[in-house]
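REVIEWER CHECKLIST
Item 1: Sequence provided? yes
Item 2: Single chain? yes
Item 3: Sequence as submitted:
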Amino acid sequence: MSHVAVPLEAWLLFAAPVAALLIGFFLMRPLAPEKTHWPILLSCAVVTAASLSLAGQVLAGRSFDVNVWRWAAVEGWGVDFGLRVDGPGAAVLAMVAVVGSLIHLYAAGYMKGDPGFSRFFLVFHLFFLAMIGLLTANNYVQLYLFWELVGLASYLLVGHWFHKASARRAALQAFLVNRVGDFGFLLALLLLLARYKVARFHLLYLLVAAGRHEMLPVIAGLLIWAACAKSAQWPLYFWLPDAMEGPTPTSALMHAATMVTAGVFLLVRSWPLIAAVPGLPVVVAWIGAFTALAAALIAGTRKDLKRILAYSTVSHLGLMMLALGLGRVGAAIFHLVVHGFFKAALFLCAGNVAHALRQPTASVDEVGGWGRAMPLTYASFVVAALSLAGVWPLAGFFSKDAIVDAAWERGGLLAAAALLVCAGSAFYIFRMLLLTFHGARPEQKGLAAHPHEAGPGLAAPPLFLALGAAAAGALGPTGSRLVFSGLRGLPVGRLGGDLVLNLPGDPALPAFSWTTALLSAAFAAAGAAAAYRLTMADPGWDWRWRGGRAEAVLASDFGWTTLMARLAAAVAALAGFVGRVLDRAWWDGLLESGAAAARGAGGLAARAADGRLNDYLWWMTAGAAVLLAGALR
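Item 4: Structure as written out by the authors:
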């Protein structure tokens, strides 16, 4: 074990969830399954306290990167289980702990009475634990193991209501698409071990800084591919909207604090490797900009509330990728933290709306004018929506403005895309707000659906999350200092006699610019005004434009989901051909004919070896004669 002391709080990050899972599985599940959540909620409280304490220590400059024990060794080579708590990790960990704990609290009320309540909470907390392990890993092997555990838990949660064919299909799609990305991560990991012989982050940073770039473009490209799958970026984004088939707490945790943030965090950890490949950061920026803009446009046309928010997540993850591609790691992390608060609040509010309808999700057709009937949910949604739209002085304004400022500094189409995303974000979230909570239209059920406010257990968590979405903007300068001070506390190496720590991009936030602030505010105002015009001034427009070619194009995500469906059908047809023709007809036929040939040859050999001594003597005499003739010649 390293001489660096591991704080007690770091041990509690793992000890509390593991203990809660063991107690929940072996005691609560068989004896009192309806109370399985109690040790899990206590674990959430411990993890939250430990995470905030660690963030405070990192802010004071007490980061650490330590190997705890060696759990895999071959001769002189091995992989250690280690812990790395630095600025980027501590910032995201604190958000995951706070947001995840509030979602756990919400899930206790939302899932009450579900036949799979105990199973849900155990897998739900395993999901939480896997994300903690991913954020605190200090090497790629360990990160990969927790990365796969995150994927497995998400598969089980999306398919929780496995009696529904749509849930089973969505879970399988999410699992398979993520396997495509995970295969890229696995190849990158194997290449890292083959070329560099180490998996620990800071050692790889030093090797790359020293000019060791063997296979680095391939490795970095594979890591980006893996991140695009996990964080739902083009071309592997399409699994995320369908993952809304899971319970609302699953959607909230997956979109705000765990699954989709893992891909962005992988790129944060890998940025010294990616930045060392000329031109590759620009590719990341363009992937993010394209995904953010396209997803925002599609979100403005969807009717299912959770799917609107799903495409919103894809769009905002694209903004984070854009920030990373521009080298602004601090801005990406800041928006990741802020996004966790307002997106979790929005999902839980959508869950309250669906809960009032006594169904898993809701469409804009089924609501309308619900603001007065659900005052707490409405208030929470308004605050979170304003934050998402980037309205001053809420947190989303500061985090989004940091990304827009970085794009504006680069200029060109990236700057234009960032500003258009501001308009698109305001449009789709105000459209959702107005269609759900304001002015029931003839096409909607409205108050005839008998809306009612959720109980305290469902109304309080989104309210607290909305407060976080409002106040987290003040964490901008603190978050920047957190990342800076956290990096200074890490191990360093020597290059040419100088102490070196290769920083993961620029951890500082861009300086505030009135130009970009006013531009982003103007585009957001234009988007909000368009939403008001098409939902309130012309309340029937959202239904009149549907049914034509435009809706078909947007429903298929500009044809991309149709193309992916055809590709999947082609792969399935190929698999059927292999199984039906190559395997059953050809290979099985070859094996069966081989067995028949072996039986025939055995029959001939059996007839030749018939056990008659006279025949054997005759053949021996004939053979001896032939040999003698050859010898005498």
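Item 5: Key structural point noted by reviewer: The chain has a mean pLDDT of 88.
Item 6: Recommendation: ____
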